[in-house]
Amino acid sequence: MIKIRDIINAIEQVAPLPLQEDYDNAGLQVGDAGALCTGALLCVDITPDIIREAVDRGCNLVLSHHPLLFKGIKRLIGHTLQQQALIAAVKNDIAVYSAHTNLDSAPVEGVSRVLASLLGLCDVVPLQQLTEKTMKLSVMVPEAHAVQVREAMWRAGAGRIGCYSDCSFSVKGEGTFMALEGADPYVGRIGELHHEPETRIDVMLPSWLRDKVERALLETHPYEVPAYEFVRLDNPLPAGLGAVGRLPSPVDAKALVAKVKDVCSSPVARCTRLPDSAIERVAVCGGSGGSLIGDAIASGAQAFVTSDVRYHDFVDYRDDIFIIDIGHYESEMCTKQIFYHIVSEKFPNFALYYSELEKNPINYL
């Protein structure tokens, strides 16, 4: 039987909550993670209609991109659509889970990464890479147990660098210690200096996996008191907001706009003036990406696809980069496909539904 917690764990393996921005409120918003899950409804935004649709479909979980609860609520009396949706979710035992900026920054199936893939971009990297979320763990292990400890740390998530797994560095040496009264040494005797052939193992890990990797280390290390240290690094993770890559071959600006509109099912696109030269390097950011225009320019991108760009940004950057502004909803519709792929890959026979009632709240006339 699949529990709501199982679905959440599958999503957070791809988009860990520590990846979210400080202002965000991703995660389980309503409901009991320990309840059996009868099905999940996928959407971008949560409204009372979405909750009713979940009830009608027999789903007790709604997976959304935008959080239902973003800022604090001081009263719950049904005067707003948000309050009405929240009341309906609680009354009908519907759990609500949102993956927002953590899904935006996810290294593999992040929103901008998927958008870049849909546009056919190659050699894609984050536009604004995350830093200060990487650590190095160094641990001294008796040689006979080095393989066991190393593999336990790998299983816990350490040793992943870019598209490579099971990464580590080892160097052999000699450790010394003297067990004092009250100790229970694995090797050596109380009161005697002991020399032990040891291996120092270094692995890298994202900071949010520290506790998990540390537990794996302590559970497999034979020493009563292992010697190890965590060091915070400035190395960028292969994760972050936005994405930038290159097209297989240069295209003119009109062709690129047509491709963007087709991929995102957007009837219109607001653009700066069309450049004369062909475009090959393209940056993208699902959602409101105006704050990343400078990063897009710094990355060498000739075009930037995003939404909610301010008028003055069109004025200020018109000579620096070709801006293609599509609708916010259009730029993030792919989140539903991301949810579907993550969950169906882990639970192939689980009941997943795309919302049929959700519509773009913006109409183009």
UniProtKB/TrEMBL annotation:
Keywords: Metal-binding
Pfam families documented for this protein: DUF34_NIF3
Transmembrane segments: none
Family annotation (InterPro entries): DUF34/NIF3, DUF34/NIF3_bac, DUF34/NIF3_sf, N-reg_PII/ATP_PRibTrfase_C
Source domain of life: Bacteria
Family indicated by similarity: Belongs to the GTP cyclohydrolase I type 2/NIF3 family.
Protein name: GTP cyclohydrolase 1 type 2 homolog
